[in-house]
Amino acid sequence: MADDIINRLQKTKTIGIIGLGDMGLLYARKFSAAGWRVIGCDREDKYESMLEKFAANEQFEVLRNGHYVSRRADYIIYSVEAENIRKIVETYGPSTKVGAIVGGQTSCKAPEIEAFEAVLPEDVDIILLHSLHGPKVDTTGQPLVIIEHRALEENTTFVNALVSCLMSKRVYLSAKEHDKITADTQAVTHAAFLSMGVAWKEIHQYPWETPKWTGGIENAKINISLRIYANKWHVYAGLAITNPSAKIQVLQYSKSTSELFTLMIQGKKQELKERIMKAKDFVFGHLSDSHQLLLDDDILERFSLSKTPPGGRQPNSHLSLLAIVDSWSKLGIVPYDHMICSTPLFRIFLGVTEYLFQSPDLLQECIDVGIDDTAFRHDDLEFTIAARNWAAIIEFGNFELYKKEFESAQEFFEPMLTEANAIGNEMIKTILQRVKERGL
Ligand SMILES: NC(=O)C1=CN([C@@H]2O[C@H](COP(=O)(O)OP(=O)(O)OC[C@H]3O[C@@H](n4cnc5c(N)ncnc54)[C@H](OP(=O)(O)O)[C@@H]3O)[C@@H](O)[C@H]2O)C=CC1
Ligand SMILES: O=C(O)C(=O)Cc1ccc(O)cc1
């Protein structure tokens, strides 16, 4: 975008952020550093502490509550818990400045739009955002979804001028398209790693202390699972529970997991192999011979949390990876089509899955282990139960139970979360660099 347009807009426009948590703060800092006038607030009862925290050292202004932000800002971004979006918009929406634009950063757009349409005056435009990464990830090159739901052309120009400082890859979608794709790239991805965490907790094992889980693929599973458990439960609960497509997809993931596991314990090797090969063909069949793998086991080998030198890759049934390919195939999803809304975690999940399915010997080894080796039976049983439990919690939309399950595993992993986050950051940086080099 031309600098003169940005400069002109910066002289007249004010950006408002309601919710100065992790993502709101990221936006407030980025926009104010780029020269925009930014005002923001968090919950009113935290006003004094927010002033203390931010007034002296930040370039944005902290106000008492969302009314003060709404009446002054030309673009107001709600960056609050998904569960509460309706209530919060009902509180501050009527105070929106005449002719302003309103948007939100919540991870599922159907409830956000519903709230805005129900509450906002008609003279207010609606342009939604969703940065597809966590608050600690560099915004450069990451997907940023923009949903121009109800907007005059001059207002879309303004929002595009504003977000250009994030240097993200802008993706224009409808709210419906966004929710359908992110159900896969986010909700199911999280369901898989949440289930791994619960399974480890249930068998009372820290995977970095057990030689069974060594090697690159295992490092990716461990680091990502712990990365999720180091975050806030409401982010994951909100994006899964409020997204209707997520319920269907997470349920299929659980169904695929239990059906594959059943074939394993029944010893039905031929049936298992046929089902896996059929799913493989659907998901990866279109890749050309020159397709370069997103990841390989070696590149992930060094990101280990283990204190003892890595003993090299160990055989595993990789039920969690077999099940994602089976569920993509059952739902008719080609995950490569979802790269436009990919998060770092999804790219890693797809990367390790692709590696497994594109390495014929490794895939055969999984099938053999699944059928002939009982070493992973208990783990796979717990994984199957955990996947079903998450699917039920999401299907019934139970935030309280989600929180309880999440925090119980979070507590189990607590001693390792800081270290896992640090190593996870390094792993993600390396992988993103590689993905970038390949222009993906
Ligand atoms: N974290 C992530 O990786 C990403 C999150 N998102 C989405 O962005 C949104 C924000 O997430 P995130 O920043 O991580 O979460 P946080 O919990 O860090 O931030 C939300 C903030 O909003 C505050 N808040 C609650 N009610 C009000 C209110 N009435 N007025 C003003 N502020 C209020 C919260 O206060 P309190 O905690 O006291 O309730 C909290 O500080 C969520 O919808 C999430 O799904 C999107 C992309 C990435
Ligand atoms: O990459 C992930 O899946 C994360 O865990 C971070 C995240 C969480 C919520 C979002 O809406 C977008 C990104």
UniProtKB/TrEMBL annotation:
Key word NADP present: yes
Keyword NADP annotated: yes
Limits of the Prephenate/arogenate dehydrogenase domain: 13-294
GO molecular function: NAD+ binding; NADP binding; prephenate dehydrogenase (NAD+) activity; prephenate dehydrogenase (NADP+) activity
Pfam family, one: NAD_binding_2
Enzyme class, broadest EC rank: oxidoreductase
InterPro entries per record: 6-PGluconate_DH-like_C_sf, 6PGDH_NADP-bd, NAD(P)-bd_dom_sf, Preph/Arog_dehydrog, Prephen_DH, Prephenate_DH_fun
Any one of the GO BP annotations: tyrosine biosynthetic process
Pathway in which this enzyme or protein is active: Amino-acid biosynthesis; L-tyrosine biosynthesis; (4-hydroxyphenyl)pyruvate from prephenate (NADP(+) route): step 1/1
EC identifiers of the protein: 1.3.1.13
Alphabetized UniProt keyword annotations: Amino-acid biosynthesis, Aromatic amino acid biosynthesis, NADP, Oxidoreductase, Tyrosine biosynthesis
Catalytic activity, reaction form: prephenate + NADP(+) = 3-(4-hydroxyphenyl)pyruvate + CO2 + NADPH
Family the entry assigns: Belongs to the prephenate/arogenate dehydrogenase family.
Protein name as catalogued: Prephenate dehydrogenase [NADP(+)]
Gene that encodes the chain: TYR1
